[in-house]
C-alpha cells in the first residue's frame, strides 16, 4: 500500500472507543470469548474523504464485486503490550473475507489450522501492509497477533509497539446490509 497517503487516514468524530483487557463487546465479530489484551476498539462508518479513498483501495483489492461489506469498519488499537489470542471470526456476523490494514508497529500474525495444529504459518504485518483472509485461511485457520515476548518472524525479532488495525469484513452470505449493525438477540 505504498504511496497511499496513509497519514491521511484520519477519522471523523463518531462512536466512542471501547477499551479493555479480556473479552470485548465487539466479540460478536469473533467466535468464542476471545481474549484481547491491552486494547481499545471501535466501529466507524463516517470517514474523511481522504480516508474513504484509502478504504476504497482496500475494498477494491480485497473484495469481489458480489460481496457486500459490513456497514462499519472496525478499528482496533493495541498497545505495545497488547495481543490477540487465537480465534476464528464469527461466521454469523462475518462473511468470507476479512481484510486488515496494519498501521504503526509491525507485528506477527500466526495462523494455525483448527484441526491440524501442526499446520501453521506466520505473516509479518508491516505498517502500511494489507492482509486478506479468505477461503481456507478464513475458515480453517485461527488467527492471532503475538505478544511482544513471542514476537518473532522466523529467527527475526519483531519488537512490538502500539499497533492500529483497520479491518473491513464482508457480510455473511444472505444477510442484507440493513441487518449488519445489530447482533441477533441470541448474542
Ligand atoms: O488486528 C487485526 O488485524 C486482527 C483483529 C482480529 O483478529 C479481530 O478483531 O477479530
Ligand atoms: Fe479476528
UniProtKB/TrEMBL annotation:
Matches recorded under InterPro entries: AlkB-like, AlkB-like_sf, ALKBH7-like
Keyword line: Dioxygenase, Iron, Metal-binding, Mitochondrion, Necrosis, Oxidoreductase, Transit peptide
GO BP, one annotated term: programmed cell death
Cofactors, names only: Fe(2+)
GO CC, alphabetical: mitochondrial matrix
Pfam families linked: 2OG-FeII_Oxy_2
Domain Alpha-ketoglutarate-dependent dioxygenase AlkB-like positions: 42-169
Coiled coil: none
Compartments where found: Mitochondrion matrix
GO molecular-function term, one example from the UniProt record: metal ion binding
Gene3D superfamilies the record matches: Alpha-ketoglutarate-dependent dioxygenase AlkB-like
Function: Required to induce programmed necrosis in response to DNA damage caused by cytotoxic alkylating agents. Acts by triggering the collapse of mitochondrial membrane potential and loss of mitochondrial function that leads to energy depletion and cell death. ALKBH7-mediated necrosis is probably required to prevent the accumulation of cells with DNA damage. Does not display DNA demethylase activity. Involved in fatty acid metabolism.
Record family assignment: Belongs to the alkB family.
Protein name: Alpha-ketoglutarate-dependent dioxygenase alkB homolog 7, mitochondrial
